[in-house]
């Protein structure tokens, strides 16, 4: 038998793969399954972006290797978006790395910065891809608990001295997957102060930057004075423009970190297909009404879902951003036993909170990624189980 490298054994098992398998098994029985467990945007990419790719695909320039680190026009496009949306000045030449989706950067930054024995601070609950990069770097994770009483913001003062001495990198993610929490500028200022004091590099995962509710646009970490000295932000088109399948993202911020990420990207990917880069630039610089419309769709889905939750007596806080709802499971259940029950008895897929870390126990995550009617139906089916 082939013996994999030791670093492979540290990779977390793909939690979502397990979820998909369970959902598929239920569907194979011929059941009408409503899948609220995954984070896959359900709507198509806006047509003006698709049209750009169709045209660009015929450009022979793009049939050759793209330049290392990508085309300058795409870096300029993302810099323009940051200026317009956040009033942040970004130097496209030195402060932007083009990524093959945000995921690649989130994994690569650990390889860029962590040696074996170094510590990475990771939110719990949190997005499991942070764990993968740390594992591949042979480094260690220390979890920062995110709890409802602190609005799911970590408490830096609770990190012990020994951990602080060894910590080199931390991840944060607002709007948050899985809790739907949003950050405040005061928290980001505290984060810059913490990073300066401890020497920890900040990786801000802004994957849900375009999705904020109640007329509150999520703020970017880079709006915080000093943010670029201490870290980078990961920004992706997957959610903001319904482009998850296109695999385009960026690392923006500290030029030294950006150049390390560019270096590793050059070795792995060279860069993205030029046509995709052109379409991505169109997304960023073309009409932005699609982003506002998407936001409004998620907000009205949120309202439809929470209306239905209230009717069955399932009490929970509304998310401030992202397209996820973080709901406590009824007494007597673990997140997994509840998720299994609603799949078997109600044909509804929800993501068990424990898949996002120990602190996720006691919750399930529901995605606002289907129509209002289906969201309501899912909750009504769960309501019939009489658990609330
Ligand atoms: N970060 C978070 C918190 C996510 O939930 C996701 C996708 O689900 C990503 C990053 C990855 O985004 P991308 O599609 O750009 O790789």
TrEMBL record:
<dbReference type="InterPro" id="IPR050881">
    <property type="entry name" value="LL-DAP_aminotransferase"/>
</dbReference>
<dbReference type="GO" id="GO:0008483">
    <property type="term" value="F:transaminase activity"/>
</dbReference>
<feature type="domain" description="Aminotransferase class I/classII large">
    <location>
        <begin position="32"/>
        <end position="382"/>
    </location>
</feature>
<dbReference type="GO" id="GO:0030170">
    <property type="term" value="F:pyridoxal phosphate binding"/>
</dbReference>
<dbReference type="InterPro" id="IPR004839">
    <property type="entry name" value="Aminotransferase_I/II_large"/>
</dbReference>
<keyword id="KW-0808">Transferase</keyword>
<dbReference type="InterPro" id="IPR015424">
    <property type="entry name" value="PyrdxlP-dep_Trfase"/>
</dbReference>
<dbReference type="InterPro" id="IPR015421">
    <property type="entry name" value="PyrdxlP-dep_Trfase_major"/>
</dbReference>
<dbReference type="Pfam" id="PF00155">
    <property type="entry name" value="Aminotran_1_2"/>
</dbReference>
<dbReference type="InterPro" id="IPR015422">
    <property type="entry name" value="PyrdxlP-dep_Trfase_small"/>
</dbReference>
<keyword id="KW-0032">Aminotransferase</keyword>
<protein>
    <submittedName>
        <fullName>Transaminase MtnE</fullName>
    </submittedName>
</protein>
């Amino acid at each position: 038998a082939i013996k994999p490298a030791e670093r492979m054994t540290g990779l977390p098992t793909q939690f979502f793969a397990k979820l998909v398998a369970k959902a598929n098994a239920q569907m194979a029985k011929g059941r009408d399954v409503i899948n609220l467990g995954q984070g896959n945007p359900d709507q198509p990419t806006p047509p003006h972006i698709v049209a750009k790719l169709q045209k660009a695909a015929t450009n022979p320039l793009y049939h050759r290797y793209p330049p290392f680190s990508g085309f300058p026009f795409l870096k300029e496009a993302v810099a323009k978006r940051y200026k317009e949306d956040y009033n942040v000045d970004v130097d496209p030449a030195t402060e932007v790395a083009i990524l093959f989706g945000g995921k690649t950067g989130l994994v690569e930054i650990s390889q860029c910065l962590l040696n074996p024995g170094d510590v990475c601070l990771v939110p719990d609950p949190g997005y499991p891809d942070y764990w993968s990069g740390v594992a591949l770097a042979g480094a260690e994770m220390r979890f920062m608990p995110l709890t409802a009483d602190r609005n799911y913001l970590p408490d830096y003062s609770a990190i012990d001295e020994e951990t602080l001495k060894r910590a080199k990198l931390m991840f944060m993610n607002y709007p948050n997957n899985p809790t739907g929490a949003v950050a405040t500028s005061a928290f980001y200022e505290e984060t810059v102060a913490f990073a300066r004091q401890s020497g920890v590099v900040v990786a801000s995962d802004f994957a849900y930057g375009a999705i904020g509710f109640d007329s509150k646009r999520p703020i970017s970490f880079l709006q915080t004075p000093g943010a670029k000295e201490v870290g980078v932000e990961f920004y992706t088109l997957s959610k903001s423009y319904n482009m998850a399948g296109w695999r385009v993202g960026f690392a923006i911020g500290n030029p030294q970190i950006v150049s390390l990420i560019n270096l590793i990207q050059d070795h792995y990917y060279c860069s993205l297909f030029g046509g995709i880069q052109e379409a991505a630039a169109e997304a960023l610089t073309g009409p932005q009404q699609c982003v506002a419309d998407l936001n409004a769709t998620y907000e009205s889905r949120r309202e439809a879902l929470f209306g239905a939750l209230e009717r069955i007596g399932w009490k929970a806080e509304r998310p401030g951003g992202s397209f996820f709802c973080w709901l406590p499971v009824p007494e007597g259940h673990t997140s997994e036993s509840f998720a299994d029950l609603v799949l078997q008895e109600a044909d509804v897929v929800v993501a068990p909170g424990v898949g996002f870390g120990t602190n996720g126990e006691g919750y399930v995550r529901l995605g606002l990624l289907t129509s209002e009617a289906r969201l309501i139906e899912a909750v009504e089916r769960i309501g019939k189980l009489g658990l609330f």
